[in-house]
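User: Sequence recovery, please. Input:
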């Protein structure tokens, strides 16, 4: 068949945005690796962590939590009703971790030494544990996702082997996720005198884990809604409604822990002081926790796919804001506000997000990601890569 048939010459708005982001991001990449990290960022000895750590790594790991939540529900708790969204959730998680590792290459001064923790062990470092967990869990996610590839190419023996070890794999994945999701919070426990009191707490490991549990299903809700629009699929509303309940409960637990910190640590003066930190804190708690929690508890909201998407998106943005606050805002007063991301840092982060959308899109087009009985119509206009029109795996 003529390959020209699969190429649309007219770019849509979002595809044009995609290519602009890619072009600027690649230019920023050249600056980073040709002239060094100092030329590509506003980082310094005073502010060594910036957007690439706060967003690309800390946020990225949290947003990929849907994989272990859904996989654990299906395989460990035998909740078969979640199986239709299992592969999209695992794909989202796998791409998330791959992009976290990819983003980390930009932040490391010598990225070619990223393999050193494999042989140079430092058991006293929190980052050592996080690094190993991320490496191992990415491997687990690759194995969990591999049946889609094996089915696509009719590789029966590898598929049989993976099916035989799926439950141990999922169990290992849940353990690894629990360890490093909480350990990312533990990392900030070493800065009690440097962090703004609103974001420093001995419960940070629990807060990071609970917020990951809440944002995992919320991310699945957002991804499912966007996928339904991009691929003209029916949204799995009953399933997503159940995930909304999980998110609501997790957000309620998270809110209780945050209020407990305010009470026990006597943070009332910080909460009600009119400054930038308090405003960001209220945005994080109010718009990112309280409002979506109330929405998710509402049966009417859970029956409306658009409002369900809105609540899920608010939860995602709330966790992103929390991670940015913990990793950047909390240190601003200590470093006298000397850090603000350079355009190259923003460009690289946007490029990584765009690559995630592209990878998800191509995986859905070439591999059996969604249930086989669903018909995948040609995506509607407005897709970031809608100029690529290739047949789905189910139709080949």
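Assistant: Recovered sequence (396 residues):
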């Amino acid at each position: 068949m003529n390959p020209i048939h699969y190429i649309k010459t007219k770019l849509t708005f979002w595809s044009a945005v995609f290519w602009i982001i890619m072009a600027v991001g690649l230019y920023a990449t050249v600056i980073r690796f040709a002239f060094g990290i100092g030329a590509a960022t506003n980082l310094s000895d005073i502010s060594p962590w910036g957007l690439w750590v706060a967003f690309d790594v800390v946020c990225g790991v949290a947003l990929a939590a849907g994989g272990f939540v859904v996989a654990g529900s299906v395989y460990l708790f035998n909740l078969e009703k979640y199986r239709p969204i299992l592969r999209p959730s695992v794909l989202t998680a796998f791409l998330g971790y791959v992009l976290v590792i990819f983003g980390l290459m930009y932040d490391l001064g010598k990225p070619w030494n990223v393999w050193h923790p494999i042989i140079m062990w430092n058991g006293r470092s929190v980052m050592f544990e996080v690094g190993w967990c991320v490496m191992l869990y990415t491997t687990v996610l690759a194995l969990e996702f591999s049946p889609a590839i094996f089915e696509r190419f009719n590789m029966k023996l590898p598929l049989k082997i993976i099916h035989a070890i799926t439950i141990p794999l999922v169990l290992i994945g849940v353990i690894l996720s629990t360890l490093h999701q909480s350990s990312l919070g533990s990392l900030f426990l070493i800065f009690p005198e440097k962090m703004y009191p609103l974001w420093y707490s001995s419960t940070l490991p629990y807060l990071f884990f609970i917020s990951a549990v809440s944002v995992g299903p919320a991310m699945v809700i957002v991804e499912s809604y966007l996928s339904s629009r991009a691929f003209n699929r029916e949204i799995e509303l009953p399933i997503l409604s159940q995930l909304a309940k999980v998110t609501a409960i997790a957000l309620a637990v998270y809110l209780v822990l945050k209020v407990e910190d305010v009470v026990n640590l006597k943070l009332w003066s910080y909460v009600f002081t009119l400054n930038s930190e308090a405003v960001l804190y209220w945005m994080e708690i109010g718009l990112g926790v309280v409002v979506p929690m109330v929405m998710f508890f509402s049966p009417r909201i859970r029956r409306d796919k658009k409002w369900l998407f809105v609540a899920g998106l608010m939860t995602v943005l709330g966790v992103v804001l929390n991670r940015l606050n913990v990793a950047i805002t909390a240190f601003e007063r200590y470093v006298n506000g000397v850090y603000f991301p350079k355009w190259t840092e923003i460009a690289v982060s946007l490029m990584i997000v765009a690559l995630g959308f592209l990878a998800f899109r191509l995986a859905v087009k070439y591999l059996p990601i969604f249930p086989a009985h669903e018909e995948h119509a040609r995506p509607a206009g407005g897709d970031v890569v809608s100029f690529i029109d290739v047949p789905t795996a189910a139709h080949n």
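Residues 41-360 form one domain.
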